[in-house]
């Protein structure tokens, strides 16, 4: 009896130890604790914006407020292993080569703006590698800290969809989602994936960005519970889109539900086990990630559509993923052909009356294709896939000249936090490393 009890205690101890190790490895800041980060913030100077999880776009926060909201990004939603779709590191992660160029104006941008990290990659080498100074934001993170994607994460289900098509789970981008019982008798039941990919699903009367609409205004009363980021797909459809018909004029209408439908349709078609295998294939095997990455998992079972596109990865793993996208396109793999197809079938943004609302300047491209912003101002003649997110987050992938820019940022606005697009985004993609001095 004593022997059995000892074995049970021993087993429980090591199970808990392994769970702790796993939690620490998944943690958004595995080497710096939440309390350590908070101790570095002068809370007496922090402005907490009412009813806002993010710093409002028009706000001009002080440094302590920037630091506090970055801390919230790291720790405000710390799900357990069971609350995430995560991918463990590759056994052979892709290792970067470095040919570093120092550029004073880039350094100045990181000293004065809300930028956490800036990476520029060209011809298989990292050319610029800068982080916010330690007396600004740099003291709060390291190279293993996982940054929140915001809407940059919308592009990743599209890339995963390409793999699902190539692996035979889904026929093509012209397949409808009508075989998915969850959408039966709802607005999206007969939609093709290409319409969801291009945000042209005819839902402009009912949704925009992360909210349902009341008339042409956000239906954001506290009692409405209409934030589309907080519900699994089934609840969103049940609450707001039952017995609705799409508009005949299906123009570009940016909203998160289109992305959620794509992501969870992949989950439906693959099943839980194969969905995880697909995630492993994309991030672990192809991108060669060095640290755990993960997506949010919303409340409810997978069959209710609980996968969310909010994504966390280290600054270097974002670059690894961008490089995988670029390599697929350049090598004309099966997934590369998918990327070429969604580029060719891009749609104009201008016809959307909401087109400028909710999209910062760095997202205001001429086209949208397959959950990527396309036709970046100043780069219209080049094939550039753009991933953009709230707070100034941006990844530009030049698939023709093998150039990538990755900007992780906590805040961006029209005033003192608007960083220099020409210097950081346009010139490097247009002119390469020669744009740095």
Describe the structure.
Strand 14 (384-389) and strand 15 (393-398) form a beta hairpin. The chain has helices spanning 2-26, 34-39, 63-75, 104-112, 155-166, 193-197, 233-240, 256-287, 315-331, 334-344, 421-431, and strands at 84-87, 97-98, 114-122, 125-131, 147-148, 207-208, 211-214, 217-218, 293-297, 307-313, 347-348, 367-369, 372-374, 384-389, 393-398, 403-411. The radius of gyration is 22 Å and the shape is globular. By secondary structure, it is an alpha+beta fold. The model is unreliable at 1-20 (pLDDT under 50). Helix 5 packs across helix 10 (334-344). It has three domains: 1-27; 31-76, no CATH class; 147-435, DD-peptidase/beta-lactamase superfamily (Beta-lactamase), CATH 3.40.710.10. The chain has a nine-stranded mixed β-sheet with strand order 2-4-3-16-15-14-13-12-11, with helices on both faces. A four-stranded antiparallel β-sheet has the order 1-9-10-5.
List keywords for this structure.
single chain, 16 strands, 3 domains, four-stranded antiparallel sheet, 437 residues
Q: What's the CATH architecture of the largest domain?
A: 3-Layer(aba) Sandwich
Order of helices and strands: HHHEEHEEEHHEEEHHEEHHEEEEEEH
Kindly report the average pLDDT value: 89
Radius of gyration: 22 Å
CATH homologous superfamily (4th level) name of the largest domain = DD-peptidase/beta-lactamase superfamily
List the helices and strands and how they pair.
Layout: H1 2-26, H2 34-39, H3 63-75, E1 84-87, E2 97-98, H4 104-112, E3 114-122, E4 125-131, E5 147-148, H5 155-166, H6 193-197, E6 207-208, E7 211-214, E8 217-218, H7 233-240, H8 256-287, E9 293-297, E10 307-313, H9 315-331, H10 334-344, E11 347-348, E12 367-369, E13 372-374, E14 384-389, E15 393-398, E16 403-411, H11 421-431
Parallel strand pairs: 2-4
Antiparallel strand pairs: 1-9, 3-4, 3-16, 5-10, 6-7, 7-8, 9-10, 11-12, 12-13, 13-14, 14-15, 15-16
Helix pairs in contact: 5-8, 5-10, 9-10
